Amino acid sequence: MQITKDNLTIVIVTIKSQKIIDNCLNSIDPAIKKIIVENSSNQKFINDIQNRYENIECYITGENLGMGQGNNFGIKKAKTRYVMILNPDTILKKDTLSQIFKISENLDFSILSPQSDNKEYPNYKILSNSKNYEIKENLFEVDSVDGYAMILDLSKFDNYYFDKKIFMYLENDDLCIRAKKNNHKIYICKQALISHLGAKTVDDKYQNEIELSRNWHWSWSKFYFRKKHYGFLNALLSCLPDFIKGCLRCFLYFFINDKKKLKIYTCRVSGFYNSFLNKRSWYRPRLD
Asked: For the whole model, what pTM was predicted?
């Protein structure tokens, strides 16, 4: 089987992404099916996208589901075997998809990704104990890829895609680990390049709220992820030092009256504490 324009759907999860979504959509071949999942109640944004672009379906969730659940929402709306998860702050090169189409012929994979055009920030990981991984002229096998650009062969996942418990961070690593445990292949296509602006999905005016959310969810997701895949003791030993440091910094910033940093470290402490108590990933940034 080969990926083509006809059997591929691109899913893009957005939230307050008006300022950057056009660059992403304009870099995609209009003939390829696209699904936009807006993690809010912003009907005006959806109407605008539908009026200006062809071959596109738009949905509003009515609430902030996070990246993982937002992508699951879009995947379930797709009618093709292959789905490309794409962040709105990415831009494809002119030949990105054509390179992927060409390399995918007779390729057995569960996840296939373009390569970041920024060599200082690779969008993949290869573990030190990985051996006998395939390396070809335009293709190499990896252990995980960043979630901002990945093509999934849906037939390999048995309707279990991103872990719905994870709101943000490590949902892509979780997906990749599960794929590897099932002996599925994950590849990077070297000549298919993509630009990633990084942390630009949400409008800059919400920067402070996003910063608080990032700190909370990184702490929550790190403990949850490590407990899920490596056990409770591993998670505790890995995350407890940061929790203690966070508590100490909270006391420090309280006494010196640094309210901004106090909020940040309070979020870090709270994220770990809630994950440790097995509470859901409930924190949401205020983007109204």
From this structure: 0.91
